[in-house]
């Protein structure tokens, strides 16, 4: 589904991604771990198409199509979803209105009519129930005054509504207590299927107890320096990132 | 079909201001310049009684001695008042004729303006008065309204048919001496709307006036007078457009609202005068005096969406004379390119237990300057007066400005006055967040701006809220590069 080939990206002439290679197939969960500043969040932003990062070499291929020249909204239309580490507030725009706009813009890009209002409401109700989200929450302004847990849960709700092919969860566990973490992880597990793929970006192994990865990759200085199964996460937890850093130097 | 570059450019230009067309209608236009003879000639043209002519002349003499105000935070080349024609009328307009008799060119113009004078508005339950240049050309629904005793007609007709009402109220809220532009308007106003709602009547439909400047080299000076008698209610809306021209056209209107005991007036404006081009050339100077007076338990609510005009100078105000009266001001002012707006309100609390609310949303883009100027004045006898003001500014880009000038004068210790202000900027992070959900940048800005303006948009009558939302989108098109 996703193929990243020798990806280099920089911001203000400073190279942050330094030759990433990664292949993700439908039905798989990949975890990307690594110390602070290793380039994890940059990788997520570059896949999503954030403009401040310049791709200097390599490509990002989704279902055979190179995304590098696509605008972020075009990538979204093709099924890329990013759950933000710091979701942004948009005062006065309700969660429902935001989702309605997002879904209809995506439909428009595909040449479809707007989704009928009753169908939209049904979909919202269904997904809110699945993720145990209070309906009142949906009429609140997007992320405004939300707690950390509410923000992340809202991200997963949007993922449920948009049904992406590829979901990237950027530090979804940061700022969550254990209960909130469990709720968010359960949501992701419910949304997983054989047709979609998930990339979980995290600093700690904790989240991976709930969202169990098929593969774990360790990022250091903008490169994947080690890949393995889920047991790699445990090993990292035990030995710390210094172990990888040292190994990478060798 | 292959476009030539020129054609494409033209199309893009018209997209920027879609009401920028000029309709070639034969018109009857006075020579340029202003003196007592011109004032008399306007009055004669309108067949006015002598008291009206004298009223105008008195205003003219006052105006001659006044100077154009300079305190507003706007910079522009002062209009040459001798280079303007003070009367211009489409020749074939006659409000007494039925619509079938109206000049087809005029009807075509309404169509372009999106005003279908007959069926569509009937469905929407809106009565419309249309003022082109200096005269009112069509008023709909007169009959339906007359059954309830409601008078809705061009002010020129009201002077003829209801002189007692006009005489009693005109100039009582905005006196001839009020300010430079109000004095000018009092001398040369050519038409506008008049509305009277009798005691205890709830006006069953929205009343609406559509103002249009069509001719070049003219100014528009309309005068609106709305009287809501005791325990009555009316919701009134005005819309404004003008052709795109290189010259600056002057619009100096006066609106007076009178809400007698227990009456309520809701007055909404969607102002979309031509703002000038992207280089700041042309556009309408919008210098307007709007004020209402509330008797006991009365309420006046001003809602405005201001997206047009090169320079705006406008402060819809409330004099809360009666006890327990309520004044409200809800405003969205958008400026883009080189537009300048200095707008806000005055809430004058005179009666006991009077209450006012001010919600102002300023959106600045391009190289524009957007100022909020508001006065909250509590008189010495206004026991328990309360005011809440909220002024929010949203900035787009690095070259525009937002300014807030709040004035508070309280002469009674029991007053409670609250003022809140915020300034924010549409961030790249917000835009990227929307983009990532499949929403392109233009749409994202529209969404953010609508969210920012929501409290005010919600105050507009339903039919116009949609129109206003679209207008906000068009005004800000291309403002984020």
What is the secondary structure topology, with strand pairs?
The complex is a heterodimer of chains A (250) and B (481).
Chain A lengths: L1 E10 L2 E11 L4 E5 L6 H9 L5 E9 L2 E2 L5 H6 L2 E4 L6 E5 H15 L7 H14 L10 E2 L5 H15 L3 E5 L7 H14 L5 E5 L13 E6 L2 E6 L2 H9 L1 H9 L1
Parallel strand pairs in A: 3-10, 3-11, 6-9, 9-10
Antiparallel strand pairs in A: 1-2, 1-4, 4-5, 7-8, 11-12
Helix pairs in contact in A: 3-5, 5-6
Chain B lengths: L4 H12 L10 E3 L6 H10 L4 H15 L23 E3 L13 H10 L5 H6 L1 E7 L2 E5 L2 H6 L3 E4 H7 L1 H7 L10 H9 L4 E5 L8 E7 L10 E6 L4 E9 L6 E4 L2 E6 L4 E8 L11 E12 L4 E8 L4 E4 L2 E4 L5 E10 L4 E10 L5 E10 L4 E10 L7 E10 L5 E10 L5 E10 L2 H9 L4 H17 L4 H14 L6
Parallel strand pairs in B: 3-7, 6-8, 7-9, 8-11, 9-12, 10-13, 11-13, 12-14, 13-15, 13-16, 14-17, 15-18, 16-18, 17-19, 18-20, 19-21, 20-22, 21-23
Antiparallel strand pairs in B: 1-2, 3-4, 5-6
What does this structure look like?
The complex is a heterodimer of chains A (250) and B (481). By secondary structure, chain A is α/β, with parallel strands linked by helices. Chain A has helices spanning 40-48, 72-77, 95-109, 117-130, 148-162, 178-191, 231-239, 241-249; strands at residues 2-11, 14-24, 29-33, 54-62, 65-66, 80-83, 90-94, 141-142, 166-170, 197-201, 215-220, 223-228. Chain A has one domain (2-249): Rossmann fold (3-Layer(aba) Sandwich), CATH 3.40.50.300. In chain A, the strands form 3 sheets. A 6-stranded mixed sheet of chain A has the order 6-9-10-3-11-12, sandwiched between helices. Chain A has a 4-stranded antiparallel sheet with strand order 2-1-4-5, with helices on one face. Chain B has one domain (27-475). Chain B is 25% helix and 34% strand. The longest helix of chain B is centred in the C-terminal third of the chain and has 17 residues, at 441-457. Classes of the chains: A alpha/beta (250), B alpha/beta (481).
């Amino acid at each position: 589904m996703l193929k990243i080939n020798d990806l280099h990206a920089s911001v203000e002439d400073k190279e942050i991604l330094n030759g990433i290679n990664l292949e993700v197939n439908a039905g798989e969960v990949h975890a990307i771990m690594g110390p602070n500043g290793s380039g994890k969040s940059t990788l997520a932003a570059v896949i999503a198409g954030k403009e401040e990062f310049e791709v200097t070499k390599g490509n990002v291929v989704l279902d055979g199509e190179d995304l590098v020249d696509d605008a972020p909204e075009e990538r979204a239309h093709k099924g890329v979803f990013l759950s933000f580490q710091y979701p942004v507030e948009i005062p006065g725009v309700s969660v429902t209105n935001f989702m309605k706009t997002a879904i209809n813009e995506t439909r428009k890009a595909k040449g479809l009519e707007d989704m009928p209002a009753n169908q939209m409401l049904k979909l919202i109700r269904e997904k809110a129930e699945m993720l145990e989200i209070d309906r009142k929450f949906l009429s609140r302004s997007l992320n405004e005054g939300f707690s950390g847990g509410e923000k992340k849960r809202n991200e997963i709700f949007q993922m449920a509504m948009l049904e992406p092919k590829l979901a990237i969860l950027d530090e979804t566990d940061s700022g969550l207590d254990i209960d909130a973490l469990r709720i968010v992880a359960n949501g992701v597990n419910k949304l997983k299927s054989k047709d979609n793929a998930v990339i979980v970006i995290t600093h700690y192994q904790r989240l991976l107890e709930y969202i169990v990865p098929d593969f774990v990759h360790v990022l250091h200085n903008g490169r994947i320096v080690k890949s393995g199964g889920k047991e790699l996460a445990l090993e990292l937890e035990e030995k710390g990132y210094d172990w990888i850093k040292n190994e990478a130097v060798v | 079909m292959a476009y030539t570059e020129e054609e494409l450019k033209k199309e893009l230009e018209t997209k920027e201001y879609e009401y920028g067309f000029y309709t070639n209608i034969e018109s009857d236009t006075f020579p340029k310049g202003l003196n007592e003879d011109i004032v008399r000639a306007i009055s004669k043209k309108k067949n006015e009684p002598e008291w009206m002519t004298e009223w105008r002349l008195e205003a003219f003499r006052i105006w001659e001695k006044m100077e154009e105000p300079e305190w507003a935070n706007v910079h522009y080349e002062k209009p040459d008042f001798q280079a303007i024609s003070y009367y211009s009328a489409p020749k074939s307009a006659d409000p007494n004729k039925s619509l079938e008799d109206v000049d087809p060119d005029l009807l075509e113009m309404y169509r372009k303006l999106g005003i279908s004078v007959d069926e569509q508005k009937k469905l929407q339950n809106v009565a419309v008065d249309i003022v082109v240049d200096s005269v009112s050309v069509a008023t709909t629904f007169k009959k339906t309204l007359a059954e309830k005793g409601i008078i809705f007609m061009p002010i020129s007709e009201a002077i003829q048919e209801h002189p007692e009402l006009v005489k009693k109220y005109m100039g009582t809220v905005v006196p001839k001496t009020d300010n430079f532009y109000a004095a000018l308007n009092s001398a040369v106003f050519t038409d506008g709307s008049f509305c009277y709602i009798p005691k205890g009547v709830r006006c069953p439909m929205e009343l609406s006036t559509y103002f249009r400047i069509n001719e070049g080299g003219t100014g528009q000076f309309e005068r609106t007078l709305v009287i809501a008698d005791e325990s009555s209610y009316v919701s009134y809306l005005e819309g404004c457009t003008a052709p795109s021209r290189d010259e600056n056209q002057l619009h100096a209107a006066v609106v007076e609202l009178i809400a007698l005991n227990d009456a309520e007036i809701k007055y909404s404006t969607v102002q979309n005068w031509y703002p000038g081009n992207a280089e700041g050339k042309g556009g309408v100077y919008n210098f307007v005096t709007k004020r209402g007076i509330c008797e006991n338990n009365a309420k006046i609510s001003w809602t405005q969406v201001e997206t047009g005009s090169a320079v705006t100078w406008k402060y819809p105000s409330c004099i809360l004379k009666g006890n327990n009266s309520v004044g409200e001001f809800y405003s969205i002012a958008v400026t883009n390119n080189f537009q300048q707006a200095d707008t806000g309100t005055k809430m004058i609390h005179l009666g006991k237990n009077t209450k006012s609310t001010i919600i102002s949303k300023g959106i600045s883009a391009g190289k524009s300057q957007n100022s909020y100027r508001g006065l909250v004045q509590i008189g010495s006898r206004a026991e328990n007066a309360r005011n809440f003001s909220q002024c929010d500014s949203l900035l787009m880009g690095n070259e525009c400005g937002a300014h807030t000038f709040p004035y508070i004068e309280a002469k009674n210790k029991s007053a409670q006055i609250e003022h809140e202000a915020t300034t924010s900027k549409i961030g790249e992070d917000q835009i990227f967040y929307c983009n990532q959900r499949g929403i392109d940048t233009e749409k994202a800005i529209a969404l953010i701006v609508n969210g920012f303006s929501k409290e005010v948009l919600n105050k507009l009558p339903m039919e116009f809220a949609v129109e206003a939302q679209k207008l906000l989108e068009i005004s800000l098109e291309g403002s984020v590069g």
